[in-house]
């Protein structure tokens, strides 16, 4: 089996203190319309999803840049659990790394949001990856 993981921690106040002139542009660059609709401007939820996106990018071994924020989407499952959907280059990179099963977990305090991403796949050598 191939096993990859990533973790990230975000100070929620970073989102609280965004310059109002760039706030909406930032939110629409980082989060999908569905994520924004689910969060209803709850900064704790947004910070948790931000941390989850970072954790997934780390598990993919590339960070944000080779893949975009919106190519990693955190949805809400039927019981409120976070579910991961990969799109575009993020999905391509996961496939190239033989990663087919993902689990993400998000937790919060009043000040911090943390997320962990774990990915599994069959063993085998991943194909040549750009930026790897």
UniProtKB/TrEMBL annotation:
Keywords: Cytoplasm, Fatty acid biosynthesis, Fatty acid metabolism, Lipid biosynthesis, Lipid metabolism, Magnesium, Metal-binding, Transferase
Binding site for Mg(2+): 8, 54
An annotated Gene Ontology molecular function: magnesium ion binding
Primary location group: cytoplasm
Residue ranges that the Swiss-Prot or TrEMBL entry lists as coiled coil: none
Enzyme Commission code(s) on record: 2.7.8.7
Protein name in UniProt: Holo-[acyl-carrier-protein] synthase
Family, similarity comment: Belongs to the P-Pant transferase superfamily. AcpS family.
The UniProt record lists the keyword Metal-binding: yes
Catalytic activity: apo-[ACP] + CoA = holo-[ACP] + adenosine 3',5'-bisphosphate + H(+)
Gene that encodes it: acpS
Pfam families for the chain: ACPS
One GO biological process term: fatty acid biosynthetic process
Functional summary from the UniProt entry: Transfers the 4'-phosphopantetheine moiety from coenzyme A to a Ser of acyl-carrier-protein.
HAMAP family: AcpS
Flavoprotein keyword on record: no
Limits of the 4'-phosphopantetheinyl transferase domain: 5-96
Species lineage: Bacteria, Bacillati, Chloroflexota, Anaerolineae, Anaerolineales
Compartments reported by the entry: Cytoplasm
Class of enzymatic activity (EC top level): transferase
Gene Ontology terms: cellular component: cytoplasm
Cofactor(s), names only, from the UniProt record: Mg(2+)
């Amino acid at each position: 089996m191939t096993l990859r993981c990533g973790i990230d921690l975000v100070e929620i106040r970073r989102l609280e203190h965004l310059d109002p002139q760039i706030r909406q542009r930032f939110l629409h660059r980082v989060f999908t319309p569905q994520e924004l609709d689910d969060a209803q401007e709850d900064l704790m939820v947004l910070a948790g999803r931000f941390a989850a996106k970072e954790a997934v990018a780390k598990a993919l071994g590339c960070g944000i840049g080779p893949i975009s924020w919106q190519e990693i989407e955190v949805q809400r499952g039927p019981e409120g659990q976070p579910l991961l959907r990969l799109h575009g280059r993020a999905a391509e990179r996961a496939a190239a790394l033989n990663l087919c099963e993902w689990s993400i977990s998000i937790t919060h305090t009043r000040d911090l949001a943390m997320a962990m991403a774990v990915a599994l796949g069959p063993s085998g050598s991943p194909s040549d990856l750009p930026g790897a």
